[in-house]
Amino acid sequence: MCSSDKSTYSAGGRLWQLLIKSVTIAIALFSLSPAAFANGWTGFQGPVPEGANVEAVPMTWSPEAGLLWKVEITGYGQSSPVTWGGRAYVTSISGPKKEHCHVTAFDLESGKVLWKHDLEAATQTESSNYISKAAPTPVVDADGVICFFEGGNLVALNHEGQVRWQRNLVEEFGPIESRHGLAASLEQSDNHVFVWVERQADPYVMGVQKATGREDWKVAGLGVTSWASPRLIPVKDHKHLVLSGIGRIAGLDPATGKSLWNFTEIKGNSTPTPVPVGDSRFLIGATAGRGEGDAGKAAESNGLIEIKTTDDGTFKAEFVWKAKRATSSFGSPLAHRGHAYYVNASGVLFCLDLETGEERYSNRLGDSIWATPIAFGDRIGIFGKGGTVSIVSSGETFDKLAENVTWEAQAADPAASRNPGGAPVLYAAVYVNDRLLLRRGDVLYCIASKR
Questions:
Q1: pTM (2 decimals)?
Q2: Domain count, the chain
Q3: Among 202, 255, 413, 446, whose CB has the most other CB atoms within 10 angstroms?
Q4: Percent of the chain, pLDDT > 90?
């Protein structure tokens, strides 16, 4: 309380102070920890929560040992879990026509299902291994979780699973048809969630109020093939909402949707999401064979891009450096402690100097990735799509510290994998509250950290 408050409440000042102290203690008891409650894994690609014990990262596990718990997920999904207040939230779809959408809350300590919210998909299409399945990752904050399904459902739930608001974007803006489905995860600011629907006809981006579900703006999308997600990139005292799709990267004003800049000196950037690197800079990834030729020059579309302010006050983007050999797979690159890390479609890990782009090493790990690598202090986790997780030391010298198999190898058997036409895939990894969550399409694994 300030001095004026104390004088106003002089007669009952002590009682008032005791009340404030009691409330503070109650809040502290309710919060599992700063990392678990105030700073969870709040959206696509995290981040690793502030205050997390990065030295407690799990180093070794196997299907028989080291798992704190594992639970089956209703249906199938390709999104990342998000976490808040000791809970993990996961989206999935089920049914032969992807007619059922699911949001499930799990207890981080036990894996117990706390609640599950089901809704009918706004669009029903045949479930296929070639079409996305619950690919967009939700966002979460103190008020709850907001989820987007590629069929057109946008729903906000509180932390107890009750609907705050929901929208059917197909009823509002027409059918969503896109090559291989939608994959763009949600992005959020304090007050808005950003929804990117890069469909074949009339693609659009929206800035939606998190409290009410009403959009403050809606503008045209890129009009290109993309399965990347929008990211807010800090630029001086503001942020730009950056979108990436084959042959184009664009920056929008997140307050209005106004176009700020366009960048077209790039190819193959269909899937990796821009990764913020300090003020005005971001890493971008691209790969060969994503619907266009000129594969020999694919590395030139991987590198560090800077957003610059011109003399007339407008913005432009340009490469700071381009990679010489490094390319990406489905996973995005990682920036950590002065280095950039890329994993290509053959499972080769490249480490580059973040300032210059000079290659420090390349080493084959054996599998391509869907999940973006995670940095834990002086360690990097690389999550192979087949469930093999490599832990390497950060820095310019390659040192593999551990290699872990999360599940036993399975043949491409639809009955065994519940992924028609393919073996299980590790889609996402989350590190929170000294636990590593690994999400494959049908199972959520929790790896216990060292105690």
A1: 0.88
A2: 1
A3: 446
A4: 73
